[in-house]
Each structure stands twice: as C-alpha cells, then as structure tokens.
Amino acid sequence: MNTLAKTPTQGLAHFTPQQLNLIQRTTARDCNPAEFDEFMHVCNRTNLDPLRRQIYAVIYNKNNAQKRQMVIIIGIDGYRAIADRSGNYRPADKSTEFVCKDDLKGPTNPLGIESATVTLYKFSHGDWFPVVATAYWDEYAPITTPDNQFDWIETGDTWPDTGKPKKTKVPKEGAVAVLDTSSKWPKMPRQMIEKCATAKAHRAGWPDDFSGTYDEAELDQMKTVELSASEWAEHAATEDRLVKIGGKNAIMFDFPNDDLGLRMVPIGELPDKVFEFLKENPDQVEYLEDRNRVPLQEFWALNKSDALEVKKAIETAKAKSSE
C-alpha cells in the first residue's frame, strides 16, 4: 500500500505565514521561490514537518546555474513516520549488526567498521518478511584531505562578482586522507553508518514512498554541509521563541568544530567572536563563510560598518590560507 496515497496532505494552511517565513529562512534557506514551492509541496505530500527536523532541502552548486540542483532530505524520524503510517511496517526487533576489523582502524575509520546491517519487517501476502540492508563504511564515510595538505592552483577563470582569479585545491605530494572533522562521523561513527543502513532498508522495503530520498548521513560523502538549517528551526520554531533566546538583537551563527556550535550571538559581540574564531581556526575560514552566508547578509543589513570589518577579516584569512 502506498503510504503517501492514504495520508491526507496538511496543506499550506497547516503553517502560519510566520512559520512559512521561518522555514524559508532555515530549513530551505538556499531555495529560490520555485524551489521553495516545490519543497513545500513535498512537505505537504509526505505530511512531514520541516520544523521538527523531519524534512529539509539542500541546494547543490547554488552558485552555478547549469549545475544547480535541489535535494530534499528526509531525516530518520521522517522515514519512520512515513513507514509507520503504511500499516505494513514493523521496526527492527534486534540491534544493528556491526562488522568491525582491527586492520581497518586508522585516520579514516577510528573503530575499524566495515559495515552496518539493519533489519526491518514488511507485511505482505499474509506474513511478515525481513527487509535487510547493509551499508559499507567505505561507501558512505566522508573521507577528505586536510586543507594544509593542499596547494591552491589558479584555474584560469575569474569570479564574476569580484574579478578575482578562481583557484582549485590540489593535494600535495604525500598528503594523508582523514575522516572529515566537519561532519559527525568522527564523533558518532556507529550512529552515522547505522543511519545510512536504516535509510537504505526503508527504500528497499517501501520504494514507492522513499525512492529518490536520502538521509543527511548518506550525503556527507558528497561534501554537504552539516544541515544547520534544520537546527535553526529547532532553536527558533516561532517568533516568540526567537525573542526568548535573543533573536531580536542577535543572529543565529554557526562556528564549525566549536564546542558551542550553532548559537544566537548578540550583534555587538559577533565581530569579536568571528575574529577570535579565525585566529584560532584559520584553516576553517571557507567553511565558516559557507555555513553562514545568510547570517552574514543579515548582519550586513543591520550593521554595515561592523559587517565590513568582518568581511575584511574573512577575506584576509582566505588570502593567507591560499598562500
């Protein structure tokens, strides 16, 4: 039975204008108007709530019109919600099976995980049948090379907005690959590979409902950012809550690899926070800028003089990192 066909859509009336605005600024922050309309259509069709981290949108190649593509991501909670509504779904009755090997342990695999296998159950033809899916570490883990092991080489092209030459990163001789520290994989390796296996199992058992959908863990290898947009919604579901956490005089900012991570930063403190971060993490400047493009634009609108100093600091740090 098709889950989506039997579930009535909530319709846009389910969201207030303020909530739609919040969704557009957070879980769908990089969408253009047409992409946002499509995203909301999928939210309604699947009966999933972007403000509860069940579904969100990521735009790939957002600065390249020819390659630009929206990918709609359904979180594990969203997968389970849809499957549960089908009436023919039963969750796993045993723990995920992990295969670990000592000879696989290293910078790209701290626990030596080879694979994770998840078993779900689907009711069909009068009986329950297992739906088994295995996710292999080397097929999903985001393995990268640290920025300090790259050389920046000019491509011959220039950026249309600034006229500055475009550069590409080329690994230095002897560069060593590591697990991407900007993702959750180093801290939660079991959980991340388990999520990949879980999403894979849902697609295998309920293809009509999940074909073409992904969990964020499955896309980390494609160098997606950790989806801070969904966390924005979690921290600020309504305008009233924004007031309570200082949203009227602060900006939601994301400091990668920082213990506090995503948080509201008072406007007057933001420049010093950025300067301090760049001083301690000069190799993270491009990641910081990419994660905070919208907050930086908001800061520019609110305080142009301080925003200009922040922009200069970022440009200076980028220039030093490319030397």
Can you walk me through this structure?
With 323 residues, the chain is of the alpha+beta class. Among the domains are: 143-179, no CATH class; 246-323, no CATH class. 39% of the residues lie in helices and 22% in strands. Strands 3, 4, 5 and 6 form a four-stranded antiparallel β-sheet that branches. It has a two-stranded antiparallel sheet with strand order 1-2. A two-stranded antiparallel ribbon has the order 7-10. A hairpin with an 8-residue loop joins strand 1 (55-60) and strand 2.
Indicate the low-confidence ranges by residue numbers.
1-13, 223-248
Helix content: 25-40%
Task: Give the percentage of residues in beta strands.
Answer: 15-25%
- Could you tell me the radius of gyration in angstroms? 22 Å
Helix/strand class: alpha+beta
Global mean pLDDT? 78
Q: How many β strands by DSSP?
A: 12
The helix/strand series, from N terminus to C terminus, equals HHHEEHEEEEHEEEEHHHHHEEHHHH
> What would you call the shape?
globular
Q: How are the SSEs placed, and which strands pair?
A:
Blueprint: H1 3-6, H2 17-25, H3 33-46, E1 55-60, E2 69-74, H4 76-85, E3 89-90, E4 97-100, E5 113-124, E6 127-136, H5 137-140, E7 143-144, E8 150-158, E9 165-171, E10 178-179, H6 189-205, H7 207-210, H8 216-219, H9 228-235, H10 239-244, E11 250-254, E12 262-266, H11 270-280, H12 285-291, H13 293-302, H14 304-321
Antiparallel strand pairs: 1-2, 3-5, 4-5, 5-6, 7-10, 8-9, 11-12
Helix pairs in contact: 4-6, 11-14, 13-14
